């Protein structure tokens, strides 16, 4: 009997130790390093090279209904609007590392060649739901053509986008970003989990346990200070999205 109790306690301790280690996701790729830039091809290669769990990208549907990888709606220092401009105009914009804004197709070709790093794909909210539905369909089609559906997690601020992915991929891994719904609501909607900001989860730390109790997963963005890193490691989130992946990896090794 005593032996059994000790064995059970040991198993529980091992289990919780394993669960407590969050996985590292490079926010907009690993861009915060020489030769890289946000959402560039180099940022995925560099994320892969340091062995992160996943690398995040932002995807827009262009004015002529093509998919490109970039964060801001209007590229800084230009008047190029990702949702309104045609593909040719967008892909002519130069990034700080000398690359140009990549198409999703070019990006996925690279991702397919690096099987150890998961793709965390954010679909940007668009001006209307029909365009969001079209964007989701085209994203899924592109991922399928590179056989990447099993290696991709979907994230979105738009609930409509989350539903669009859910409809296309009932078993897909879909996380909601907007921070305004409790884990209970997310569970009811049939999504995989929450991917909320530092600000939201600092205000609702109880949502981490509530999510886990409901069988959901928890990601948090964007965790860049050591204080926040320690806070969310201790809180037991499943994933941490950061602009400083190497610092987080070093902290997790301690
Ligand atoms: Mg993003």
> Between the first and last Cα atoms, what is the distance in angstroms?
36 Å
Radius of gyration: 19 Å
Give the total of domains. 1
Q: Any idea what the CATH superfamily is called?
A: Phosphatidylinositol (PI) phosphodiesterase
Helix content bin? 40-55%
Major pleated sheet:
8 strands, parallel, barrel
Put simply, the count of helices is: 11
Ligands in the model, by name, code or SMILES, are: magnesium ion
CATH level-two architecture: Alpha-Beta Barrel
What would you call the shape? globular
Oligomer: single chain
Strand order, biggest sheet? Answer: 1-2-4-5-6-7-8-9
Residue windows where pLDDT falls under 50 for at least 5 positions? 14-18
CATH class annotation: Alpha Beta
CATH topology: TIM Barrel
Q: H/E series, N to C?
A: HEHEEHHEHEHEHEHHEHEH
Average pLDDT works out at: 94
Counted beta strands: 9
Label the structural class. Answer: alpha/beta
Outline the structure in words.
Helices cover 42% and strands 17% of the residues. The chain has an 8-stranded parallel beta barrel with strand order 1-2-4-5-6-7-8-9, surrounded by 7 helices. The two termini are 36 Å apart. About 2% of the residues have low confidence. The protein is globular and about 45 Å long. Helix 10 crosses helix 11. It has one domain: Phosphatidylinositol (PI) phosphodiesterase (TIM Barrel, Alpha-Beta Barrel). By secondary structure, the chain is of the alpha/beta class. Magnesium ion binds next to strand 2.
